């Protein structure tokens, strides 16, 4: 079953394009890019999710990431 989002593809793509431009400006390697993405995810979870729910949200996020990878 496909996952639907409440955000438009256009909005997501616009934000991704802007973030990619910043990473390119700083000549961020793949490793640094993944570190930054991980830190952003951690900060969002820590700042916006109740402590009791953080682990479950992080696990769902990790599962979604794995599911999104192409074989």
TrEMBL record:
Record the organism.
Vibrio eleionomae
- InterPro entries on file: UPF0352 (IPR009857), YejL_sf (IPR023202)
Q: Which family does it belong to?
A: Belongs to the UPF0352 family.
- Protein name, per record: UPF0352 protein F9817_02935
What NCBIfam families does the annotation carry? PRK13689.1 (NF010242)
């Amino acid at each position: 079953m496909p996952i639907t989002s409440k955000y438009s593809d256009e909005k997501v793509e616009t934000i991704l394009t802007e973030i990619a431009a910043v990473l390119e400006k700083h000549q961020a390697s793949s490793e640094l890019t993944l570190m930054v993405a991980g830190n952003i995810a951690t900060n969002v979870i820590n700042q916006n999710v109740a402590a009791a729910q953080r682990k479950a949200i992080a696990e769902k996020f990790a599962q979604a990431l794995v599911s999104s990878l192409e074989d």
